Amino acid sequence: MVPYDVNDEKVLQAIRDLIFTCGGDNTTFESDLVTQLIQNSLKLLFEGHDTGQLKLITRAMKEMRYAYRIFNRYGGMRRVSIFGSARTPEDHPDYLAAKAFSKQLAEFGWMCITGAANGIMKAGLEGAERDAGFGLSIKLPFESIANSAIEGDPKLITFRYFFTRKLMFMSHSDAVAAFPGGFGTMDELFEVLTLMQTGRAPILPVVLLEGLPGTYWKDWQEYVNKQLLEKGWISPEDKAFYYIAKSIDDGVEHIQNFYRTYHSSRYVKENLVIRLHHPLTPQQLDKLNDQFAILLASGRIEACNPYPEENDHLELPRITFQHNRMHLGKLRILIDQINAF
Protein backbone atom coordinates (compact mmCIF):
# COMPACT_ATOMS: atom_id res chain seq x y z
CA MET A 1 0.00 0.00 0.00
CA VAL A 2 1.35 3.44 -0.98
CA PRO A 3 1.25 6.01 1.86
CA TYR A 4 -1.26 8.80 1.26
CA ASP A 5 -0.58 12.37 2.36
CA VAL A 6 -2.70 12.85 5.50
CA ASN A 7 -2.53 16.62 4.91
CA ASP A 8 -4.25 16.27 1.56
CA GLU A 9 -7.50 18.22 1.39
CA LYS A 10 -9.46 15.03 0.59
CA VAL A 11 -8.23 13.43 3.80
CA LEU A 12 -8.89 16.57 5.82
CA GLN A 13 -12.43 16.86 4.44
CA ALA A 14 -13.10 13.20 5.23
CA ILE A 15 -11.96 13.81 8.82
CA ARG A 16 -14.13 16.92 9.11
CA ASP A 17 -17.10 14.93 7.79
CA LEU A 18 -16.39 12.19 10.33
CA ILE A 19 -16.29 14.71 13.18
CA PHE A 20 -19.59 16.20 11.99
CA THR A 21 -21.16 12.73 11.66
CA CYS A 22 -20.16 11.99 15.27
CA GLY A 23 -21.90 15.14 16.49
CA GLY A 24 -18.90 17.48 16.70
CA ASP A 25 -18.52 21.04 15.47
CA ASN A 26 -15.76 20.83 12.87
CA THR A 27 -15.17 24.59 12.89
CA THR A 28 -13.70 24.87 16.41
CA PHE A 29 -10.10 24.82 17.63
CA GLU A 30 -10.93 21.69 19.63
CA SER A 31 -11.97 19.91 16.44
CA ASP A 32 -8.65 21.00 14.87
CA LEU A 33 -6.85 19.21 17.70
CA VAL A 34 -8.97 16.08 17.19
CA THR A 35 -8.17 16.30 13.48
CA GLN A 36 -4.47 16.25 14.30
CA LEU A 37 -5.00 13.19 16.52
CA ILE A 38 -6.70 11.37 13.65
CA GLN A 39 -3.98 12.44 11.21
CA ASN A 40 -1.27 11.13 13.54
CA SER A 41 -3.18 7.87 13.96
CA LEU A 42 -3.31 7.46 10.18
CA LYS A 43 0.45 8.01 9.93
CA LEU A 44 0.95 4.94 12.14
CA LEU A 45 -0.24 2.78 9.24
CA PHE A 46 2.82 3.56 7.13
CA GLU A 47 5.71 4.23 9.54
CA GLY A 48 6.80 0.68 10.27
CA HIS A 49 5.55 0.41 13.86
CA ASP A 50 5.28 -3.12 15.19
CA THR A 51 2.20 -4.52 16.91
CA GLY A 52 3.60 -3.96 20.41
CA GLN A 53 4.24 -0.27 19.72
CA LEU A 54 0.77 0.20 18.27
CA LYS A 55 -0.78 -1.49 21.31
CA LEU A 56 1.17 0.76 23.68
CA ILE A 57 0.15 3.95 21.85
CA THR A 58 -3.49 2.85 21.66
CA ARG A 59 -3.74 1.77 25.29
CA ALA A 60 -2.00 4.91 26.55
CA MET A 61 -4.40 7.08 24.56
CA LYS A 62 -7.40 5.18 25.95
CA GLU A 63 -6.09 5.49 29.52
CA MET A 64 -5.54 9.24 29.24
CA ARG A 65 -8.91 9.91 27.59
CA TYR A 66 -10.82 7.91 30.20
CA ALA A 67 -8.93 9.35 33.18
CA TYR A 68 -9.39 12.95 31.99
CA ARG A 69 -13.10 12.28 31.55
CA ILE A 70 -13.43 11.11 35.17
CA PHE A 71 -11.42 14.02 36.60
CA ASN A 72 -13.31 16.57 34.48
CA ARG A 73 -16.50 15.69 36.36
CA TYR A 74 -14.99 17.14 39.53
CA GLY A 75 -13.58 20.46 38.38
CA GLY A 76 -13.20 23.51 40.58
CA MET A 77 -11.89 21.71 43.68
CA ARG A 78 -8.34 21.69 45.03
CA ARG A 79 -6.70 18.26 45.07
CA VAL A 80 -3.74 16.81 46.95
CA SER A 81 -1.79 13.77 45.74
CA ILE A 82 -0.61 11.52 48.56
CA PHE A 83 2.39 9.24 48.05
CA GLY A 84 3.69 6.59 50.44
CA SER A 85 4.29 2.91 51.00
CA ALA A 86 1.66 0.27 50.25
CA ARG A 87 3.26 -1.84 53.01
CA THR A 88 2.53 0.48 55.94
CA PRO A 89 0.44 -1.38 58.59
CA GLU A 90 -2.83 0.17 59.67
CA ASP A 91 -1.62 0.65 63.25
CA HIS A 92 1.63 2.35 62.19
CA PRO A 93 2.11 6.05 63.15
CA ASP A 94 2.61 6.91 59.45
CA TYR A 95 -0.73 5.34 58.53
CA LEU A 96 -2.55 7.23 61.28
CA ALA A 97 -0.79 10.46 60.27
CA ALA A 98 -1.76 10.07 56.59
CA LYS A 99 -5.37 9.44 57.54
CA ALA A 100 -5.47 12.48 59.85
CA PHE A 101 -3.77 14.68 57.23
CA SER A 102 -6.21 13.73 54.50
CA LYS A 103 -9.17 14.21 56.85
CA GLN A 104 -8.05 17.73 57.79
CA LEU A 105 -7.61 18.82 54.18
CA ALA A 106 -11.00 17.33 53.26
CA GLU A 107 -12.56 19.52 55.94
CA PHE A 108 -11.14 22.51 54.04
CA GLY A 109 -12.78 21.26 50.83
CA TRP A 110 -9.82 19.42 49.30
CA MET A 111 -10.04 16.12 47.42
CA CYS A 112 -7.41 13.38 47.71
CA ILE A 113 -5.66 11.57 44.84
CA THR A 114 -3.66 8.50 45.72
CA GLY A 115 -3.09 4.93 44.63
CA ALA A 116 -5.67 2.23 45.23
CA ALA A 117 -3.45 -0.20 47.15
CA ASN A 118 -3.22 -0.57 50.92
CA GLY A 119 -0.89 1.22 53.33
CA ILE A 120 -0.57 4.99 53.02
CA MET A 121 -2.83 4.99 49.96
CA LYS A 122 -5.72 3.43 51.85
CA ALA A 123 -5.10 5.75 54.80
CA GLY A 124 -5.37 8.81 52.55
CA LEU A 125 -8.63 7.60 51.06
CA GLU A 126 -10.08 6.73 54.46
CA GLY A 127 -9.28 10.19 55.77
CA ALA A 128 -10.82 11.96 52.79
CA GLU A 129 -13.82 9.64 52.81
CA ARG A 130 -15.44 8.22 49.70
CA ASP A 131 -16.87 11.36 48.11
CA ALA A 132 -13.53 13.19 48.19
CA GLY A 133 -11.08 10.51 47.02
CA PHE A 134 -9.64 9.35 43.69
CA GLY A 135 -7.86 6.00 43.46
CA LEU A 136 -5.31 5.58 40.65
CA SER A 137 -4.65 1.86 40.50
CA ILE A 138 -1.81 0.23 38.57
CA LYS A 139 -1.97 -3.29 37.17
CA LEU A 140 0.80 -5.30 38.83
CA PRO A 141 1.35 -9.07 38.99
CA PHE A 142 1.18 -8.99 42.81
CA GLU A 143 -1.22 -6.08 43.37
CA SER A 144 -4.39 -5.92 41.33
CA ILE A 145 -7.28 -5.48 43.79
CA ALA A 146 -8.34 -2.05 45.01
CA ASN A 147 -8.50 -1.42 48.74
CA SER A 148 -11.85 -1.36 50.52
CA ALA A 149 -11.86 2.45 50.77
CA ILE A 150 -12.11 2.93 46.98
CA GLU A 151 -13.30 -0.43 45.58
CA GLY A 152 -16.38 0.02 43.40
CA ASP A 153 -16.09 3.81 43.37
CA PRO A 154 -16.49 5.51 39.95
CA LYS A 155 -13.39 7.58 40.83
CA LEU A 156 -11.26 4.41 40.82
CA ILE A 157 -9.17 4.46 37.63
CA THR A 158 -6.97 1.53 36.62
CA PHE A 159 -3.79 2.05 34.58
CA ARG A 160 -1.54 -0.31 32.70
CA TYR A 161 1.34 2.17 32.46
CA PHE A 162 3.10 4.09 35.19
CA PHE A 163 3.75 7.05 32.90
CA THR A 164 0.05 7.68 32.22
CA ARG A 165 -0.72 7.24 35.93
CA LYS A 166 1.99 9.74 36.88
CA LEU A 167 0.63 12.20 34.32
CA MET A 168 -2.76 12.10 36.03
CA PHE A 169 -1.20 12.64 39.46
CA MET A 170 0.66 15.73 38.26
CA SER A 171 -1.90 17.26 35.90
CA HIS A 172 -4.67 17.20 38.51
CA SER A 173 -2.79 18.07 41.70
CA ASP A 174 -2.67 21.39 43.53
CA ALA A 175 -0.38 19.97 46.22
CA VAL A 176 1.66 16.84 46.95
CA ALA A 177 2.15 15.10 50.28
CA ALA A 178 4.73 12.34 50.63
CA PHE A 179 4.90 9.87 53.51
CA PRO A 180 7.69 7.34 54.10
CA GLY A 181 7.96 4.65 51.46
CA GLY A 182 10.24 2.68 49.20
CA PHE A 183 11.41 2.90 45.58
CA GLY A 184 7.97 3.84 44.26
CA THR A 185 7.53 6.69 46.73
CA MET A 186 10.98 8.08 45.98
CA ASP A 187 10.32 7.76 42.25
CA GLU A 188 7.10 9.76 42.53
CA LEU A 189 8.59 12.39 44.84
CA PHE A 190 11.75 12.97 42.81
CA GLU A 191 9.75 13.14 39.59
CA VAL A 192 7.58 15.91 41.05
CA LEU A 193 10.69 17.80 42.21
CA THR A 194 12.41 17.32 38.85
CA LEU A 195 9.41 18.56 36.86
CA MET A 196 9.20 21.72 38.95
CA GLN A 197 12.99 22.26 38.92
CA THR A 198 13.05 22.06 35.11
CA GLY A 199 9.89 24.12 34.58
CA ARG A 200 7.94 21.23 33.08
CA ALA A 201 5.19 21.39 35.70
CA PRO A 202 3.52 24.23 37.61
CA ILE A 203 5.01 24.99 41.01
CA LEU A 204 2.90 23.60 43.84
CA PRO A 205 3.44 22.91 47.55
CA VAL A 206 5.19 19.62 48.36
CA VAL A 207 5.06 18.58 52.01
CA LEU A 208 6.94 15.66 53.54
CA LEU A 209 5.18 14.11 56.53
CA GLU A 210 5.37 11.13 58.86
CA GLY A 211 4.03 9.89 62.14
CA LEU A 212 5.86 10.75 65.33
CA PRO A 213 8.53 10.04 66.43
CA GLY A 214 9.85 9.34 62.92
CA THR A 215 13.26 10.17 61.43
CA TYR A 216 12.62 9.21 57.80
CA TRP A 217 12.68 12.73 56.39
CA LYS A 218 15.49 13.85 58.69
CA ASP A 219 17.66 11.06 57.29
CA TRP A 220 16.49 11.83 53.76
CA GLN A 221 17.38 15.49 54.23
CA GLU A 222 20.88 14.54 55.38
CA TYR A 223 21.34 12.53 52.18
CA VAL A 224 20.09 15.45 50.04
CA ASN A 225 22.45 17.88 51.80
CA LYS A 226 25.53 15.64 51.70
CA GLN A 227 25.17 13.88 48.37
CA LEU A 228 23.25 16.40 46.25
CA LEU A 229 23.72 19.90 47.63
CA GLU A 230 27.34 19.74 48.83
CA LYS A 231 28.45 18.12 45.57
CA GLY A 232 26.69 20.74 43.47
CA TRP A 233 24.11 18.45 41.87
CA ILE A 234 21.33 20.80 43.04
CA SER A 235 21.27 24.51 43.87
CA PRO A 236 20.54 25.85 47.38
CA GLU A 237 17.24 27.35 46.21
CA ASP A 238 16.11 23.94 44.93
CA LYS A 239 15.42 22.95 48.53
CA ALA A 240 12.53 25.44 48.44
CA PHE A 241 10.58 22.96 46.31
CA TYR A 242 9.75 20.83 49.37
CA TYR A 243 8.85 21.39 53.01
CA ILE A 244 9.45 18.93 55.85
CA ALA A 245 6.43 19.43 58.09
CA LYS A 246 6.82 19.38 61.85
CA SER A 247 3.35 17.91 62.33
CA ILE A 248 0.15 17.14 60.46
CA ASP A 249 -1.26 20.55 61.41
CA ASP A 250 1.92 22.19 60.13
CA GLY A 251 1.68 20.34 56.82
CA VAL A 252 -1.95 21.32 56.30
CA GLU A 253 -1.15 24.94 57.18
CA HIS A 254 1.76 25.00 54.72
CA ILE A 255 -0.51 23.90 51.87
CA GLN A 256 -3.27 26.33 52.82
CA ASN A 257 -0.78 29.21 53.08
CA PHE A 258 0.52 28.52 49.56
CA TYR A 259 -2.86 29.63 48.20
CA ARG A 260 -3.40 32.52 50.63
CA THR A 261 -2.62 35.20 48.02
CA TYR A 262 -1.21 33.14 45.13
CA HIS A 263 -3.90 31.48 43.00
CA SER A 264 -2.24 30.02 39.89
CA SER A 265 0.09 30.87 37.03
CA ARG A 266 0.62 30.32 33.32
CA TYR A 267 2.89 31.46 30.53
CA VAL A 268 1.67 33.72 27.75
CA LYS A 269 4.51 33.52 25.24
CA GLU A 270 7.57 34.77 27.16
CA ASN A 271 5.55 36.32 29.98
CA LEU A 272 4.80 34.53 33.22
CA VAL A 273 1.38 35.57 34.51
CA ILE A 274 0.68 35.01 38.22
CA ARG A 275 -2.99 35.20 39.23
CA LEU A 276 -3.71 36.43 42.77
CA HIS A 277 -6.60 36.42 45.20
CA HIS A 278 -6.03 40.12 45.84
CA PRO A 279 -3.79 42.77 44.27
CA LEU A 280 -0.32 43.78 45.44
CA THR A 281 0.59 47.33 46.32
CA PRO A 282 3.22 49.33 44.38
CA GLN A 283 5.52 49.03 47.39
CA GLN A 284 5.15 45.24 47.40
CA LEU A 285 5.91 45.11 43.67
CA ASP A 286 9.04 47.19 44.28
CA LYS A 287 10.15 44.68 46.90
CA LEU A 288 9.65 41.76 44.48
CA ASN A 289 11.67 43.57 41.81
CA ASP A 290 14.48 44.21 44.27
CA GLN A 291 14.61 40.63 45.56
CA PHE A 292 13.95 38.63 42.40
CA ALA A 293 15.65 40.50 39.57
CA ILE A 294 17.52 37.25 38.84
CA LEU A 295 14.29 35.86 37.36
CA LEU A 296 13.81 38.64 34.81
CA ALA A 297 14.81 38.37 31.17
CA SER A 298 14.03 42.07 30.84
CA GLY A 299 11.72 44.71 32.26
CA ARG A 300 10.06 44.58 35.67
CA ILE A 301 7.45 42.67 37.63
CA GLU A 302 4.25 44.64 37.07
CA ALA A 303 0.52 44.46 37.67
CA CYS A 304 -1.44 43.65 34.52
CA ASN A 305 -4.85 42.92 33.06
CA PRO A 306 -5.64 39.51 31.57
CA TYR A 307 -3.90 38.83 28.25
CA PRO A 308 -6.14 38.17 25.22
CA GLU A 309 -4.80 34.59 25.16
CA GLU A 310 -6.15 33.89 28.66
CA ASN A 311 -9.62 32.42 29.02
CA ASP A 312 -9.88 31.53 32.70
CA HIS A 313 -9.86 33.32 36.06
CA LEU A 314 -10.29 36.62 34.23
CA GLU A 315 -11.73 38.25 37.35
CA LEU A 316 -8.51 37.82 39.36
CA PRO A 317 -5.79 40.49 39.69
CA ARG A 318 -2.46 39.63 38.09
CA ILE A 319 1.21 40.37 37.99
CA THR A 320 3.48 39.53 35.08
CA PHE A 321 7.10 39.60 33.98
CA GLN A 322 9.35 38.25 31.25
CA HIS A 323 10.72 35.13 32.89
CA ASN A 324 14.11 33.85 31.79
CA ARG A 325 12.93 30.27 32.52
CA MET A 326 15.81 29.83 34.98
CA HIS A 327 16.18 29.64 38.76
CA LEU A 328 12.83 27.94 39.31
CA GLY A 329 13.65 27.45 42.98
CA LYS A 330 13.78 31.24 43.29
CA LEU A 331 10.36 31.40 41.66
CA ARG A 332 9.07 29.11 44.41
CA ILE A 333 10.54 31.53 46.97
CA LEU A 334 8.87 34.46 45.15
CA ILE A 335 5.49 32.77 45.67
CA ASP A 336 6.26 32.47 49.39
CA GLN A 337 7.06 36.19 49.49
CA ILE A 338 3.80 37.05 47.75
CA ASN A 339 1.90 35.02 50.35
CA ALA A 340 3.86 36.64 53.18
CA PHE A 341 2.77 40.19 52.26
Strand line-up across the major sheet = 4-3-2-1-5-6-7
Low-confidence stretches: none
Distance N terminus to C terminus?
Answer: 66 Å
**Number of DSSP E strands:** 11
CATH architecture label of the largest domain: 3-Layer(aba) Sandwich
Main CATH class of the largest domain: Alpha Beta
- From the spread of the alpha carbons, the general shape counts as globular
Question: Helical proportion?
Answer: 40-55%
Domain unit count: 3
Task: Identify the notable features of this structure and list them briefly.
alpha/beta; 7-stranded parallel β-sheet; Rossmann fold; globular; 3 domains; single chain; 4-stranded antiparallel β-sheet; 341 residues
What do you see in this structure?
With 341 residues, the chain is α/β, with parallel strands linked by helices. The strands form 2 sheets. Strands 4-3-2-1-5-6-7 form a 7-stranded parallel β-sheet, with helices on both faces. Strands 8-9-11-10 form a 4-stranded antiparallel β-sheet. α1 crosses α2 and α4 runs parallel beside α5 (120-128). It is 43% helix and 16% strand. The mean pLDDT is 95. The protein has 11 helices and 11 strands. The protein folds into 3 domains: 9-72; 79-258, Rossmann fold; 262-340.
